[in-house]
Amino acid sequence: MGFPYSLVIFDLDGTLVDSVSDIAEAVNRTLAQWRLSGIDEDTVRNWLGDGSRKLIESAFRHSGRELDVQEVMPVFMRHYQACLLLDPRLYPGVRETLQALRDRGVPMAICSNKPAQFIRPLLEALQIDDYFEVTLGGDSLPESKPSGMPLGYLADKFGEAAERCLMVGDSSADLHSALDAGMPVALVSYGYTRNLDLESAPATAIVDDIREILQL
Fold first, then answer.
1. Above 80 in pLDDT, residue 173?
2. For residue 2, is it within any domain?
3. Domain-terminating residue out of 37, 67, 83
4. CATH number at residue 186
């Protein structure tokens, strides 16, 4: 079967990898340094998708403490690195999907709002790093998702028109980034969707299993 897209761009956390427990641990270790109570994993899950700065801002706001971002972020980044590989897990079907796309000759890239320095180590630990020619993090370019800039950058880098590419993600940031870039988007239903209404989202496809994108 042919595949209608010349490039597939994947979000990372909540799309390929379930990493919420590790991120929540990093958040809670940071809060502990300010003698603040920990936050449960489900609450942290609802803050994911907009980058590390907004994540830690949400955590301190939830704890009722004023935030000095310049002071807190270096501490959080150290904990983020320490917790990065505690227990990350690929979602079902991820490796099979990546291999199927490679077998069809479809190039792949990562566009995440995760700090760029943590992307390759995570991919390497999960043994999927060699599937991706290019990876972008939330701090790789002047703008991050939900801006369309990162997706436009990747399409240009691979010499493809945006409408010939497919973004695969799980959040409103992924959806709006794709819409801004003029790129088709498939949303997975199992990730960190937060308050995104999947039923009304103007996506090319909503999938319950990532392997379903192979049938598009």
1. yes
2. no
3. 83
4. 3.40.50.1000
Give catalytic residues, as residue numbers.
Answer: 11
User: Would you call the peptide bond into 107 cis, given omega within 30 degrees of 0 as the criterion?
Assistant: no
Q: Which domain holds residue 59?
A: 20-83
User: Given a cut of 70, is residue 1 above it in pLDDT?
Assistant: no
Within 13 Å of residue 24, how many CA atoms lie on the same side as its CB? Answer: 17
Cβ-based burial of 206 (10 A; exposed 0-12, middle 13-18, buried ≥19): middle
Q: Is the dihedral of CA 140, 141, 143, 147 positive or negative?
A: negative
Residue recorded with tokens 């988007």:
185
The tokens for 34 are 């300010």
Calpha distance 21→48 (Å, rounded) = 12
Share of the chain above pLDDT 90, in %: 91
How crowded is the C-beta side of 10, counted as CA atoms within 13 Å?
27
**79-110 residue pLDDT tens:** 999 999 999 999 999 999 999 999 999 999 99
Q: Which residue has the tokens 């939830």?
A: 62
pLDDT, one tens digit per residue, over 127-171 is: 999 999 999 999 999 999 999 999 999 999 999 999 999 999 999
